[in-house]
Design brief:
Helices cover 26% and strands 33% of the residues. By secondary structure, it is α+β, with helices and mostly antiparallel strands.
């Protein structure tokens, strides 16, 4: 299904298995190649402490802004297809190691909830590993019902952010 006009969206990217940097760069290229979609911006990579089960490697995280004609569920399907193409297997475990994790953070000003998807992402305000890269490329982005990205980043701090890697553009 298609949106009537391109909708600005924010996507979080993360990986901590294999060559995570190469995987994130390939995922950004795949996002840019989605039908009816244009990549507007991409943050630098950030090395972050893992959240969840102990003993995991550090993550690399980034954020991307898109303009897409895909509807929210169609965009989710596309994000999950990109994850699968990079070896992601959904086994029901939460916060474990990942070859690639793509989370739809925002879809324009829409507040949306289905069995499969909730936007804005319900834990966005609690995650420095999402807010720091997102604030780099969209500090003024207003997250419906949550607040402005830069204010959320300042309030949440930078806990778990270990290092910024390279310039913008993952």
């Amino acid at each position: 299904m298609r949106a009537a006009a391109p909708v600005p969206c924010a996507v979080a990217l993360g990986a901590n298995l294999g060559d995570a940097a190469a995987t994130l760069r390939a995922a950004v290229a795949a996002l840019a190649a989605l039908p009816g979609t244009r990549l507007l911006a991409c943050s630098a990579l950030y090395r972050t402490a893992p959240v969840g089960p102990p003993g995991q490697p550090d993550y690399l995280n980034a954020a991307a802004l898109l303009a897409t004609g895909l509807d929210p569920e169609g965009l989710l399907d596309a994000l999950q297809a990109i994850e699968r193409a990079h070896g992601r297997r959904r086994d029901g475990s939460r916060w474990g190691p990942r070859t690639l994790d793509l989370d739809l953070l925002t879809y324009g000003g829409l507040r949306y909830r289905s069995r499969r998807l909730e936007v804005p992402h319900p834990r966005i305000a609690e995650r420095p590993f999402v807010l720091v890269p997102l604030a780099e490329i969209a500090p003024g982005l207003e997250i419906p019902g949550v607040g402005r990205v830069e204010a959320l980043r300042r309030r949440g701090g930078e806990a778990g952010i270990l290092e910024r890697i390279g310039g913008q553009g993952a």
